[in-house]
């Protein structure tokens, strides 16, 4: 390649943005407590609705016409019982797992309109 050709290639590259660009640095990510709490609340409520579905309480002409309806109806109770926003040091991840496990173990014969009676789902058990 001649000097003239090399100059034309460089001029073309510069004109059309082919010049090397500085590497992008990813924006710092933060996980807010509210996001983590909402995720735990979603997990607990989904576990409740999975149990309701396993107990044949979800579907047409059932207690909850759809899984989405179940989530909508049970979320307020899940929020009221867990009260993650009142945990002074945040919530304990392992405790959320224990709560979900306890929900899954509940027999269909026992009504679970609220998670209040489940020890692993009590506010005091869920806080750090």
In a few lines, what is going on in this structure?
The protein is 53% helix and 0% strand. By secondary structure, it is mainly alpha-helical. It has one domain (32-126).
* Main sheet specs: none
The tally of domains stands at 1
Summarize model confidence as the mean pLDDT.
82
DSSP strand tally: 0
Instruction: Bin the helical content.
Output: 40-55%
Q: Total helix count? A: 5
| Radius of gyration from the alpha-carbon trace, in angstroms | 26 Å
SS-derived structural category: mainly alpha
What is the CA–CA distance across the termini?
69 Å
The residue ranges in which pLDDT falls below 50 over 5 or more consecutive positions are none
**Helix and strand pattern:** HHHHH
Q: What percentage of the residues does DSSP assign to strands (E)?
A: under 5%
Spatial shape: globular
Describe this structure in words.
The chain is mainly α and 128 residues long. It has helices at 3-15, 33-54, 67-82, 93-105, 123-126. Helix 2 packs across helix 3 (67-82) and helix 2 (33-54) runs parallel beside helix 4. The mean pLDDT is 82.
Spell out the key features of this protein.
53% helix, 128 residues, mainly alpha, 5 helices
Question: How is the topology of this model organized?
Answer:
Elements: H1 3-15, H2 33-54, H3 67-82, H4 93-105, H5 123-126
Helix pairs in contact: 2-3, 2-4
């Amino acid at each position: 390649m001649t000097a003239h050709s090399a100059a034309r290639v460089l001029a073309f590259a510069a004109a059309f943005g082919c010049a090397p660009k500085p590497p992008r640095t990813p924006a710092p990510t933060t996980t807010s407590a509210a996001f983590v709490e909402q995720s735990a609340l979603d997990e607990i409520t989904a576990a409740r609705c999975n149990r309701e579905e396993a107990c044949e309480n979800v579907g047409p002409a059932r207690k909850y016409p759809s899984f989405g309806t179940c989530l909508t109806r049970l979320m307020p109770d899940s929020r009221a019982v867990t009260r993650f926003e009142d945990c002074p040091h945040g919530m304990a991840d392992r405790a959320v797992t224990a709560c979900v496990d306890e929900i899954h173990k509940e027999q269909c014969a026992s009504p679970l309109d609220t998670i209040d009676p489940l020890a692993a789902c009590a506010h005091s058990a869920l806080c750090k």
